Amino acid sequence: MMKTVQTIGLTFGLMASTPVVAQDGFALPAGCSAFVTMQLSSCTVSHHYRCVGDPDGQKWRADMDEEGLSYVGRTDDEAQWVESFHMRSAHSEQFGGAVDPMSFSELVANGVDTWDFETNSAEIGTSRYAGMDRLTGETVVIDGVSLMRTEYALTAYGPDGSETWRSSGSEYISTDWRMFVSGISTYVTSDDSFETDNTPVEFIFPGEAGFLSTSPKYGCGVQMSSYQATQ
After folding, report:
1. Strand 163-174 relative to strand 145-157: parallel, antiparallel, unpaired?
2. DSSP characters over 173-210
3. In whole angstroms, what is the distance from residue 195 CA to residue 65 CA?
4. By the 8 A CB rule, do 188 and 166 touch?
5. Which of 106, 110, 177, 225 lies 20 to 30 A from 219 at CA?
């Protein structure tokens, strides 16, 4: 069963009240354990964790920038969105069903995966996301972590069925973690277009300096677009 908006708010409360060992460390909700922290090029530090009681294979991601927590999302073992909360735009989305579900397994096995699914949001209504991911055949190593490069294309539609934004770019997947890792993306809206670079620079593991840090290290001070796309 997917969490409601109220449950997501409770999760954020637990994040704020649960201490960790490091004085400035990110506070995980009770019953959760992080497996990697990523320092990204975009003045963002991203924490990835799993929680007791969630279905097998599900995992969470929490992004922090210079202003604090900006995004929290959960995906399943096929890398399909389950729910997400966007702090800057103050809206949440929950998975609403798929005509063509995302499949990490299909992407790895066949080199391409198409998808077409909906999310429900109390704040913005129903959205539809249709697109594809494709392996390029290239394997890259970033900070000692081996990743497979992908290309993607995505079109988002609003409650009335009209296109709201498009995105394309290059990302990565980790077969060990069964998840996507951000890369370089282009976004196009009705009145704007811009590029983001969320490529990881560092992977930090439990016990290493900087694990669960709340301070982004790279790309800070660079003017960023205020557009908050679903991730």
Report:
1. antiparallel
2. EETTTTEEEEEEEEEEESS-EEEEE--EEEEE-TTSTT
3. 17
4. yes
5. 177
pLDDT tens by residue, 22-57: 446 899 999 999 999 999 999 999 999 999 999 999
H or E element, residue 132: strand 127-142
- Please measure the distance between the N-terminal and C-terminal CA atoms of the chain and give it in whole angstroms: 21
Nearest partner of 46 among 177, 201, 185, judged by Cα: 201
Phi and psi dihedrals of 11, rounded to 5?
A: -60, -45
| Extents of the domains making up the chain | 5-204
Angle at 93 between CA 155 and CA 201, to 5 degrees: 70
Paired tokens of 231: 């991730």
Cα 154 to Cα 67: distance, rounded to the nearest angstrom = 28
CB atoms < 10 A from the CB of 64, how many?
21
**What are 170-203's pLDDT values in tens digits?**
999 999 999 999 999 999 999 999 999 999 999 9
* Euclidean distance between CA atoms 40 and 142, whole angstroms: 11
pLDDT digit string, tens, across residues 75-107 = 999 999 999 999 988 999 999 999 999 999 999
